[in-house]
Amino acid sequence: MPQPVRLESLAAEAEVHPSHFARVFKQHVGMTAGEYVRRLRVAAAVRHLEKAEGSLSDIAYQTGFADQSHMGRHFRRYLAAPPNAVMESLKLSEPPGRLS
User: What stretches of the chain show up as alpha helix (H) in DSSP?
Assistant: First the structure.
């Protein structure tokens, strides 16, 4: 499982105070560091779904979510669909002639 990303660790790496890091990060990226990490996790989970790599529980664990339910909440938040619907959508968009 990926290690959690801590704001304090990022700030220490940048050699600034955590509140300064958080403020500057949001100014430059347009979202909080936590939001950014959650979006990266959802994107990683989608890549796993595209490759059909494991069960939803396995994918949730591999991409840093606490469990499948936690991953599902973030899928609905960012993609407006649960993981199984995203997985079905990906299957439907496969090129013709591709073997599953």
Answer: 7-14, 18-29, 33-50, 56-62, 68-79, 83-92
